[in-house]
Design goal:
Metallo-beta-lactamase, Chain A, six-stranded mixed beta sheet
Length: about 290
């Protein structure tokens, strides 16, 4: 039986999260869950993540995995909330260690933060296989946007993270610390070498030109029409295009709040002596 895939759209961050279910065993995985966060008030919320939990419960599923495609810069991860409510092990690419080391220095995190990935239940390597019931999950390392970026291949479906967008929106930026446009080009070529009918499930869509939001495309559609990666696009030209475009992009509004939570596998910092949780905002670092 093929995977049953349900998408959840977080409008504020234009993020798609997914629940993947093996209908033969009713085992499940969640990919890239979002914790609600209002920057103006500093309030967190679980409404969006609760919808995922409710879906899992209503389907009578047991949750095996909470899979992160990378340490996101545009939303806070709800991995800890999902795990508390539904169980499951939190996994991310082994490149998270590099991301943690870079941002531990940026945030001035002390010795109590270990940049060795221990905050996650499992660090994944390229080519590893996981199980969701009878479904096999192939782990693909796709660095470039970040050094820890992964895609997850389940049958004829690939969950791409931020590597690719819909063809009219192109590809991910590479100007965050640890990003590399050349590495992203190589990662995308690896994805585009998959069979044409492979379904690509995206982490974001911004409704380019006012069209309706979409979360699914195919390798064939990306090869043929992606504005940054049409067939024949060379590595040198792509790197030049990507760097020039990145230089014009504003910094993601939630990067500074989000990364410090996401490198902790979705855990908020420990409360201070007054019982309040504080986020660190480094000034004049970007």
């Amino acid at each position: 039986m093929s995977a049953q895939i349900t998408a959840f759209f977080h409008k504020t961050s234009s993020t798609y999260s997914y629940v993947v279910v093996d209908g033969a065993t009713w085992r499940a995985a969640v990919i890239d869950p979002v914790l609600d966060y209002d920057a103006a008030s500093g309030r967190t919320g679980s409404r969006s993540a609760q919808a995922i939990v409710d879906h899992i419960r209503a389907a009578g599923c047991s949750l095996d995995w909470i899979l992160e495609t990378h340490a996101h810069a545009d939303h806070l991860s709800a991995a800890q909330f999902i795990k508390q409510e539904s169980g499951g092990s939190i996994a991310i690419g082994e490149g998270i260690r590099t991301v943690q080391a870079i941002f531990a220095a940026i945030y001035g995190l002390g010795a109590d933060f270990s940049p060795d990935g221990r905050q996650f239940d499992r660090l994944l390597k390229d080519g590893e296989r996981l199980r969701i019931g009878d479904l096999e999950v192939e782990v693909m390392a796709v660095p470039g946007h970040t050094s820890d970026s992964l895609a997850y291949r389940i049958g004829d479906a690939l969950f791409t993270g931020d590597t690719l967008f819909m063809p009219d929106s192109g590809t991910a930026r590479c100007d965050f610390p640890g990003g590399d446009a050349g590495a992203l080009y190589d990662s995308i070529q690896r994805i585009l070498a998959l069979p044409e009918a492979t379904r690509l499930y995206l982490c974001h869509d911004y409704g380019a030109g006012g069209r309706e939001h979409r979360n699914e495309t195919t390798v064939e559609e990306e090869r043929r029409t992606n504005i940054h990666m049409k067939d024949g696009a060379g590595r040198e030209a792509y790197v030049k295009l990507r760097r020039e475009r990145d230089a014009t992009l504003p910094m993601p509004a939630l990067l500074l709040p989000a990364i410090q939570v996401n490198i902790r596998a979705g855990r908020l910092p420990e409360p201070s002596a007054d019982g309040v949780v504080y986020l660190r905002i480094p000034l004049n670092r970007f």
